[in-house]
Fold this protein.
Amino acid sequence: MGTSAVPDIVVGRLPLYLRALSQMEAEGKEITSSQELGERLGISSAQIRKDLSQFGEFGKQGTGYSIGYLTEQLKRILKVNQTWDVALIGVGDLGRAVANYAGFLDRGFRVVAIYDNDPRKIGLKVGPFQIRDAAKLVQDLRGQRIQVAMLAVPVAEAQSVTDRLVEGGVRAILCYAPTSISVPRLVRVQYIDPVLHLQRMTYYVP
Amino acid sequence: MGTSAVPDIVVGRLPLYLRALSQMEAEGKEITSSQELGERLGISSAQIRKDLSQFGEFGKQGTGYSIGYLTEQLKRILKVNQTWDVALIGVGDLGRAVANYAGFLDRGFRVVAIYDNDPRKIGLKVGPFQIRDAAKLVQDLRGQRIQVAMLAVPVAEAQSVTDRLVEGGVRAILCYAPTSISVPRLVRVQYIDPVLHLQRMTYYVP
DNA sequence: TAGATTGTTAATCGATTAACAATC
DNA sequence: TAGATTGTTAATCGATTAACAATC
């Protein structure tokens, strides 16, 4: 859990708040309230106020929250008031889509290099990137001080690539491979497996 | 929460158990225990036993769980002992990757049709699919009794397409658009937004 | 001032864990 | 039988909510 006493479940909601605030800003709004934010997200206003109070006082009684100011503060707290360089490993269909995804940049992330171990792919262009040899991964990560990686390799290779990410100094891994991976305590992992979500829903479908 | 008294957080872990069991089966194992399963997943053995006990008794004291039998039971509980037809709406880079993803079929899902509203895309082939006109969505969903959909359209169109999915009788939506969507109480929604996961991790990176 | 909304406390609710009898 | 592991109960832990004084 890092050094912080803030529950991880609270940290996990902050990006959601940030995303909703961005949308409000795009709609031209300048002020919001815990109630309005809560309605958009299906979360109680009390929870939003409680969550935010973990980090400071960002609102005004009687008025609510300045969208611009709260956005700025949340970005600072989540450390996305900077742009993180991200490495992408595995350039299959999914990796290709991730490499071309335009939605990272304005939310704090920038893909800077993409890797594959298939000799037929190495050197090919994908969008603005040239696919690099996965054998160069560790030295690149260290050389460019890359701390964030996205993993889009087959399940069979997920753990071995993970080990090299860790060796290269990566501290946060977004794993698209449908499997659990092991990392040292200080490395964070998040998973994306669409089938888990689908299976969770069909339980409820009559 | 549907009709069931089982907490949704428990339902959400069952697909994880199922996935780990499949891997064990692939490794040639036939028996496991709540402890072994828990170690793989970073979950306590007590929690696994408690979760499973919500649905019945699947193990043997002193022995553990038959991987084959427990797999079968979890598939039945999650209703993935059948194959669900899935519609995919939005054929950008991500939609293309999802359409080509081979990992759905053996886990209970099959993409049967893909849609876009861009006249330049309609009619094009993507893998085995021909992109259909999104204007045909509602009639197709009803005609084929499709209950599950994946949404890979831009944020600006997410809500309007969602409304048509609901109109067509869809009961479960996997939303790849980075926004919250509104649905009637009986329709389930799950979200995939990689940036939310990344932002949740950078909080902890020093 | 009156109305609104925050930040915070205490109460409630729900989830996780520990422990153990049952039993394979 | 002895050892192992389940299913379940009670205890613990943590998260959410309700309520309200403070204050804009």
